[in-house]
Write a structure and sequence with these properties.
InterPro entries: Lipocalin-like. The structure is a single chain. 14% of the residues lie in helices and 42% in strands. With 158 residues, the protein is mainly beta. The strands form 2 sheets. An 8-stranded antiparallel β-barrel has the order 1-4-5-6-7-8-9-10. A two-stranded antiparallel ribbon has the order 2-3. It is globular. The N and C termini lie far apart (68 Å).
Length: 158
């Protein structure tokens, strides 16, 4: 009887502490991942009102500091790396882990010299307009109570 009560209390605790964040599908879109394999530069970051407001991307720096950044995506192990070296911005470099799910979401963790399993914060963006030479990542943010899209334009490095 005691075991049943302990089990019941434990199950209430587990279900009572369930995450309230939006579920992210983990079924991979391997074809799209392979299309992004390689080296890329961010050629532009755009969003409505960009001349008036400042957006901090990925809790790191001003979104405009991502223009000129270089990214490497490895599709067979979902690892990667990016370097920020924009003028007037602090240089930053980090390994990442990433994947694209069947819902067209680009899911990324910035590792900062930590193992992916030890990083509990990630980012979910929409991947769009994929071609051999370019693609976009779109981050949905809230600015003054209004939903806004921040669009990162990527160009393949040959």
């Amino acid at each position: 009887m005691r075991k049943i009560i302990v089990l019941l209390v434990f199950s209430v605790f587990v279900f009572g502490c369930k995450s309230t964040s939006s579920p992210v599908t983990t079924k991979l879109d391997n074809k799209t991942e392979v299309a992004l394999k390689g080296n890329w530069n961010v050629t532009g970051v755009t969003y409505p009102g960009s001349e008036y407001i400042k957006v901090t991307s990925f809790d790191l720096v001003d979104s405009k500091c991502f223009v000129g950044s270089s990214w490497k995506f490895v599709s067979n192990n979902n690892k990667g790396h990016f370097d920020l070296t924009g003028s007037g911005c602090t240089d930053y470099s980090s390994d990442i882990t990433w994947y694209i799910n069947k819902d067209g979401q680009f899911v990324m963790k910035i590792l900062n010299a930590a193992k992916a399993k030890n990083v509990n914060q990630g980012y979910v963006l929409k991947v769009a307009n994929i071609s051999e030479s370019s693609f976009q990542l779109i981050d949905h943010i809230n600015v003054g109570g209004k939903p806004t899209d921040v669009v990162y334009q990527f160009q393949r490095i040959n």
